[in-house]
Inverse folding.
DNA sequence: AATGGGTCCAACCGCCACATG
DNA sequence: TCATGTGGCGGTTGGACCCAT
């Protein structure tokens, strides 16, 4: 098999994407949204297969992607989730907003695996290595020394929805010594992944539509179209490839992009109170994230992008949102088992801005308030 | 400066599941 | 029921980059 039928007929480009191709794909998706990937290349004017376009969008162009180093919290979360889920990278990624399965997989293979081995933990079973193993692995490690310091931070407790709708807390104390009970493991394995991004309060019932609408359709509250970078008349330019070397997300408030001459330096962008107020009163978990919040149209309106001078646009902007207030969680309806499927949409299909940073933080706030 | 080995990561491959006709 | 098309996932790989020699 290999290539889909859509790719076989024409001679299609392979390999790394050029900025021009990125621009075409990004412009197309932001204008028309994601419908049928197989038709995207043709409509966007790309010599790529749909699958390749999809991958490029999901792994690289999506504006909500977080970039740069994994934080300690993320690292702990990945390890914990891997213990439960194994190599189900997509499910793990669903718990880490702004991270892709590919990114997590790479991080695991290149870093976390070795880190666990160095700690005497079998990365596949998450149990202590036998003495023989340890000797074996020591050999390997000695020949390929770690470049990153060992994690010293506490492992992070995890929360999973139980079959009763209440939360199942997996404490850090059980982390490395056997981990989950079979029962709890079973509960988690049979439940859908809890994706915090599923709870955004999207306007216009996009979730019900089952079809991914273009960003331009989210812009109902935006002002003049010439101020709207995503609008139908937009013609922003990919002036540079995004920098892949952001500073640590744990602290970043300003993201610098590789092209320092462009206006693509986005200062801290804070969600203001209007966002909260404008959000749906009936939103459930969406309330949780309004502190780090996300009503898409409001987000666009309030984010205050810096479209300066040359109108250049770097799609991988990030912004920092207010830290989620813990009070918000107390009123959340997680405990009530109201995991609303009508808000369960495939976030990876939406060209959204990044909220990942504080959502990750938000996750941990949740843990603290259970 | 050249080079060889190791690392990282973006992209591809192969497979599976599901929808549709 | 079967064939076909498509989306999604996990494993693998090629090449750019880094660093030691």
């Amino acid at each position: 098999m290999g290539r889909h039928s859509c790719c076989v007929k024409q001679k299609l480009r392979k390999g790394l994407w050029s900025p021009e191709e990125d621009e075409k794909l990004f412009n197309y998706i932001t204008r028309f949204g994601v419908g049928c990937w197989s038709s995207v290349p043709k409509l966007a004017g790309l010599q790529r297969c749909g699958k390749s376009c999809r991958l490029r969008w999901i792994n690289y162009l999506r504006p909500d992607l977080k970039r740069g180093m994994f934080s300690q919290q993320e690292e702990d979360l990945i390890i914990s989730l891997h213990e439960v889920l194994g190599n189900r990278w997509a499910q793990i990624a669903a718990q880490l907003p702004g991270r892709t399965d590919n990114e997590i997989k790479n991080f695991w293979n290149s870093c976390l695996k070795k880190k666990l081995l160095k700690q005497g933990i079998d990365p596949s079973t998450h149990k202590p290595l036998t003495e023989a193993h340890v000797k074996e692995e020591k050999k390997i490690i000695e020949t390929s020394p770690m470049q990153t310091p060992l994690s010293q931070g506490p492992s992070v407790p995890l929360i999973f929805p139980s079959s009763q709708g209440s939360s199942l807390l997996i404490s850090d104390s059980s982390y490395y010594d056997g981990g989950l009970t079979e029962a709890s493991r079973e509960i988690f394995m049979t439940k859908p992944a809890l994706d915090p991004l599923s709870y955004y309060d999207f306007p216009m019932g996009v979730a019900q539509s089952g079809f991914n609408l273009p960003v331009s359709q989210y812009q109902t509250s935006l002002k003049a179209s010439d101020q709207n970078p995503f609008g139908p008349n937009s013609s922003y330019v990919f002036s540079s490839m995004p920098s892949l070397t952001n500073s640590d997300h744990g602290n970043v408030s300003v993201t610098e992009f590789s092209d320092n001459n462009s206006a693509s330096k986005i200062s801290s962008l804070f969600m203001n109170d209007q966002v909260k107020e404008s959000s749906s009163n009936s939103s459930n978990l969406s309330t949780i994230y309004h502190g780090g919040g996300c009503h898409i149209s409001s987000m666009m309106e309030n984010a205050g992008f810096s479209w300066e001078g040359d109108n250049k646009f770097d799609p991988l902007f990030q912004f920092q949102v207010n830290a989620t207030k813990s009070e918000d969680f107390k009123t959340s309806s997680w405990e009530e088992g109201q995991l609303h499927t009508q808000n369960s949409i495939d976030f990876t299909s939406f060209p959204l801005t990044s909220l990942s940073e504080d959502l990750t933080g938000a996750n941990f706030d949740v843990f603290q308030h259970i």
Notes: The longest strand of chain A covers residues 158-161. Residues 1-9, 140-370 of chain A have pLDDT under 50 and may be disordered. The CA atoms of residues 307 and 343 of chain A lie 31 Å apart.
